[in-house]
Design a protein that fits this description.
binds iron/sulfur cluster; 197 residues; alpha/beta; six-stranded mixed beta sheet
């Protein structure tokens, strides 16, 4: 298993981020302002994986600062988790124009970056946010084929185990913008992450 020191992790992430910023491996490079790199504690046991940068994140080159980010911050705060204590990244590093769904070839082109982030950070638990990130992470750990149908609601809030990795699918914060009634329930799910920190 990959066991890098903190400084080795930071160096490896810096090299990877350089590659992400220069990437034009799929058509999304043409419409982005920034290819957004992950942020947070590279030594964290908790890795959040969202879908892609929104407009504000694309404009300002920062993770989770738009409306979804406000919800994410609120959930972390309510659960007593410091944002600086976790690592956050996206499945697709460049903005999806008009919030459209990602295409399979875009996910395939960008996934090697996420795989490298997982390898470097080596978290105890991966928290994919929403169906697309969950589908990709489960496929990576051979928990189902990426082409299988997946019922996200049946996985939401369940801790799944694969070898030495735990996977904890949670709703994307954007979903709570449209369904604020799920907030309390989601806060309880975030609280479970404190045991890993
Ligand atoms: S979405 Fe990923 S693969 Fe596509 S251009 Fe951006 S960084 Fe490269």
């Amino acid at each position: 298993m990959n066991r890098l020191s903190l400084s080795e992790k930071q160096e490896s992430i810096d090299v990877l981020n350089y590659q992400i910023r220069a990437c034009n491996n799929c058509g999304l490079h043409a419409t982005r302002l920034h290819a957004l790199t992950g942020e947070g504690n590279v030594d964290s046991p908790v890795l959040f994986v969202a879908l892609s940068p929104g407009e504000k994140e694309n404009a300002e080159n920062k993770m989770f600062i738009g409306p979804s980010g406000q919800v994410f911050n609120k959930l972390l705060h309510a659960a007593g988790i410091q944002r600086e204590s976790v690592f956050m990244t996206n499945l697709v590093k460049c903005m999806l124009p008009k919030n459209r769904k990602p295409k399979m070839d875009e996910i395939d082109a960008c996934s090697p970056f996420l795989e490298e982030e997982i390898s470097i950070i080596s978290p105890e638990i991966i928290v994919p946010l929403g169906a697309y990130a969950t589908n990709a992470i489960l496929a990576k750990f051979n928990m189902h084929s990426a082409s299988d149908g997946m019922n996200f609601s049946s996985l939401n809030g369940k801790i799944l185990a694969s070898n030495n990795k735990k996977i904890y699918p949670l709703p994307h914060p954007a979903a709570l913008l449209y369904n604020p009634g799920f907030e309390l329930n989601t806060i309880e799910k975030y609280k479970r992450l404190k045991t890993f920190l």
